[in-house]
Amino acid sequence: MSICPEVLQYAGCIVASYFNGLRSYKFTMSDKVKNGTTRDIAGKSCVFYDGYWIRSYHLHEDSYADKKQMIDQLTRRVFHHVEQGINTPSKSLDDIREIYEAEDDPARKRVKGAMLAGSLLNRGRQILTAIVELEEAGVKIETSNELLRECGRCFIEALSLGKNIKLADGGEGVDELWGEPFKVFSMPIEDFFQSRYIKISQTMTEIDQITCAISTVTIRDGAFSDVNNKLIELGVMAKMTCETIRTDPAMFDVWPRYIAAKEEYEDSLNNLLIDKNDKKNIQFMYAYRLIKEGGALLIKLATLRVPIPDSVRLFTNKCKEFTEK
Question: Please, where are the H alpha helices in the chain?
Fold first, then answer.
């Protein structure tokens, strides 16, 4: 498989990787660059954080309308990733609160707490929508306005109940994800974007760690040579996907390339099991499971867009133990 040049030249880095030995090279053009430095790279506006040139975006004004737009986008994203059944309508807030407070069973109370958090998040969004509509009608909303204060109280309580929420796959990362709408509401948009760039750089670091860990497994057996080729592009496209917001027109190019890389990686794994021969011993199958698990982590990081350090640490340790046997 040939890898297109723009994939190899990614985020200010030239990545030259090969797997015919125990080496993977990464040459960066980021030496001595300060965090927050901005630059146009290959026609893309980028900002530098912790070793990565990340796609950057022109900041909105700090208006309630802009905050509402961002909170709506982030809320849709968080409900997409968390467990089902907690996107409780705002109109049901009083009912679910009463049910939550009356529940004694810890397991059921957790779920009802998650449902209450969802309703509070939706109530905060609804109030913010009303504030924006009032401003558009010419009504000036001061920071001391009770409607605005109630909106803040809803977001704060929803944040405090976030400990009851789980991701759909039960893994880590929900705290970062659930807190983002509140951050947009409570801090200047410029500060929020800076915090997001830091999280994206941390996510990219973990994508590289996972990719490197997988490669230490795949290079041990020639049967995984096809997986090696697909691994490079999946890792690169995972980083491009996590840095690109869904409303960016660039996503029309980035997303199909990411899905194609994901499917090719998965197909290469499936093809390993089609050939029925004696090579599939215990060691081979354990390596296969590690490579599949690593691919799933790359996919999760690409779409979750927040770091999951415990999962990454556990996986890299598994790979290290396997290669040291």
Answer: 5-8, 64-81, 93-102, 106-136, 146-160, 174-186, 189-218, 225-243, 251-274, 282-304, 309-323
